[in-house]
Amino acid sequence: MPLTLGKWFAPSKSVCPICGRDAARTAGSGVIPVRHPQPRQALASLCGLCLRAIPWIAYPVCLVCGRAESCEDCVRRKIRSYTISRCAVRYTEMMKDWLALYKYRGNEGVETVLAAILAFAYERLCEAANSEFHAVTSVPLAPERLRERGFNQAERLAIRLAEWYGLSYRPMLHRLRHTEKQSLKSRLGRVVDMRGNFAADHSALFPGNILLLDDVYTTGSTLDECARVLKQAAEANESLRVYGLLWARS
Ligand SMILES: [Zn+2]
Ligand SMILES: [Zn+2]
């Protein structure tokens, strides 16, 4: 398309999907550390201020869970059901706001940006795991929470990622009972209470590397319990491995 025609059809102002600023005025002023063209395009829709504010975890210090700092939880946990996990960003106040913006409004533009941020962790995980993934699944929400919100953010992000990278998305887990908000519990309480929260759908399982997706990694007990339940359900099938993929690491 000739330049003049392109200009004619292009919107006069591109609005940043996060903050609503005129993105064109500050565009091109941030690095986009993702290779796949679709998430790259989504990140390019951000204004420069938002793009530069993303606290990417480019060099994890804990090579198990992908945290940017050294990690007591992984040292303490002697038995682990997931292989490794990677997290896209540090869970800063700003990232809390971005996730809340999405969780409570379900805005599609924000969803695309958050999925594109997650793509960064996916590409890092592929390098770290040095193998391919055969299916993607997500940590289910409690039924009460799902009714309140109307959607499971981890599932929606997982579906977006699966579409971009040509993976198959499969629901494999159910949440069995409602627990109090995690933040109200002590660290030890959380670890104990995760047991019995999830069940795996046997018919959805198959051998290979499964990518398990959740929005925020706090202690890792949700991720680990889900991985344990998946592996237990696979029983004799020792070739099932679970890798964690998280949007943010607190
Ligand atoms: Zn912005
Ligand atoms: Zn760790």
Overall pLDDT: 86
Beta-strand percent range: 5-15%
Q: What is the makeup of the main sheet?
A: 4 strands, parallel
Q: Which ligands, by name, code or SMILES, are bound?
A: zinc ion
- Total number of distinct structural domains: 1
Structural class: alpha/beta
Question: Roughly how many Å apart are the termini?
Answer: 46 Å
As for the CATH topology, it is Rossmann fold
Examine the secondary-structure arrangement and name the CATH architecture.
3-Layer(aba) Sandwich
Q: How many distinct helices?
A: 11
Task: Give the proportion of residues in helices.
Answer: 40-55%
Instruction: Report the strand count.
Output: 6
Low-pLDDT runs: 180-184
What is the general shape? globular
Biggest sheet: strands side by side, in what order? 1-6-5-2
Give the H and E element order: HHHHHEHHEHHEHEEHE
Radius of gyration computed on alpha carbons: 19 Å
CATH level-1 class: Alpha Beta
Describe the structure in your own words:
With 250 residues, this protein is an alpha/beta fold. The chain has a single domain, classed as Rossmann fold (3-Layer(aba) Sandwich), CATH 3.40.50. Helix content is 42%, strand content 14%. It has helices at 3-9, 23-26, 37-44, 48-53, 72-76, 93-105, 108-129, 143-149, 153-165, 187-193, 221-234; strands at 85-90, 135-138, 173-175, 198-200, 209-217, 241-249. The strands form two sheets. It has a four-stranded parallel β-sheet with strand order 1-6-5-2. Strands 3-4 form a two-stranded antiparallel ribbon. α11 links the parallel β5 (209-217) and β6 (241-249). α3 (37-44) crosses α7 and α6 (93-105) crosses α7 (108-129). The longest helix has 22 residues, at 108-129. One zinc ion is lined by residues 16, 18-19, 21, 46-47, 49-50.
